[in-house]
């Protein structure tokens, strides 16, 4: 059973049928709906303020009823939040207090809202991310959902991985950008702001309809979305950027396949293909940005090298978020199952499977690879980031690649070196009965690229000198100091400035 079959059987139509082909969709009426949502205050800052949350990722389905009964007032905006984020039904009068009759009819025609007795339920969540509003499928907390199940064609919610990739992928101008595994279209629609043209690809036709709807709702006209298997619909085309949030959860072959989640036995089925085929679809200097759960981080460099063998060389930057303890990971990925016995069996199957295929560690992370000219030596760098990237760090990623280039090409020899903006030193004195130890950490409050980094007193003094004097790189980089300076440069603590 798929969600498309379920809703066709129940309501007589598939959702967003009007977006089944590329050139369709009631664009003007959707623009009017978007304006009404804006006027009602249905935007990230106002919705999070109303819910009292730091960001929408903190909204947990288990707490939907709490927000309804304890937190939200009875206003048109709060009712829209109930309908589009909390899986709660609204009566016609509440709907029409928030939206015009034409917009309500449009939502009915598109299958976004469906009748439930005297009330209406939404078949989608409408998530706010920056300026974007993004429809995704609801989940098992919705009364419309089949008891306890997850279905293979579910269009994925906006998760930490979705937001993190949106924040980490470079945003400088791109002529052509490819969003692989587009789901709701979030990555491609973010990219539409810095790209002349975006193509999104998903194997799931339901996801393609959602992406097209989301483009139209947000008034984005330079992004198109097509169905297909990874690079197959864009064979022979090269891009300045490729973005991918592929399914990456390792699964035993016996487990029912969810398109948005399952990445094969080690979770790397699509990741491998992205490194095999991605570099050949990049223009020189182009960047492939991927989010994934990383298995066995220690062997990642060798795996990337073997997957990308024969492709153009790459500068690879790996941003590592938090470690994901195996016990919590298998439990979290079994929650969608309807019964306690089903969940227990799934946890056991996953644990056995992880042992069989040799998965010993898991980390959340981002793999960002820049295509280099033929003959240039590639590079590989792992950096720790914040536990979860929820604020833009793309400018740091671009600086990292520029610094790598300057080191490789010798441009740093002519540059002056300074301290990156926002860097602070935090001193902690630990006093014992007989001695005192001083610890120095680099901290950059509110910047997800820089987790606290402990440094020695020697480096602390060096960095203070650099902040004050902006010395020439050539004067600072002696044979002894060069490795540590290069490390600090590639970490983004130091930055290069033109001479003079
Ligand atoms: C983890 S979701 C990502 C959704 C969205 N890009 C985001 O960042 O939230 C993975 C998506 O990959 C799609 N997918 C799975 N296998 C695919 C394949 N072989 N080719 C293209 N898309 C695929 C799924 O249908 C799903 O929409």
Automatic annotation (TrEMBL):
Domain DUF7059: 39-121
PANTHER family per record: METHYLTRANSFERASE N6AMT1 (PTHR45875)
Cellular component, GO annotation: eRF1 methyltransferase complex
Biological process (GO), any one: methylation
Signal peptide feature range: none
Organism: Cystobacter fuscus (strain ATCC 25194 / DSM 2262 / NBRC 100088 / M29)
Molecular functions per Gene Ontology: N-methyltransferase activity; nucleic acid binding; protein methyltransferase activity; S-adenosylmethionine-dependent methyltransferase activity
Gene3D superfamilies to which the protein is assigned, alphabetical: Vaccinia Virus protein VP39
Keyword GTP-binding: no
Keywords: Methyltransferase, S-adenosyl-L-methionine, Transferase
Protein name in UniProt: rRNA/ tRNA methylase
Residue span(s) of domain Methyltransferase small: 173-290
Residues that span the membrane, as ranges: none
Pfam families noted in UniProt: DUF7059, MTS
Family: Belongs to the eukaryotic/archaeal PrmC-related family.
InterPro entries: DNA_methylase_N6_adenine_CS, DUF7059, Euk-Arch_PrmC-MTase, SAM-dependent_MTases_sf, Small_mtfrase_dom
S-adenosyl-L-methionine recorded as keyword: yes
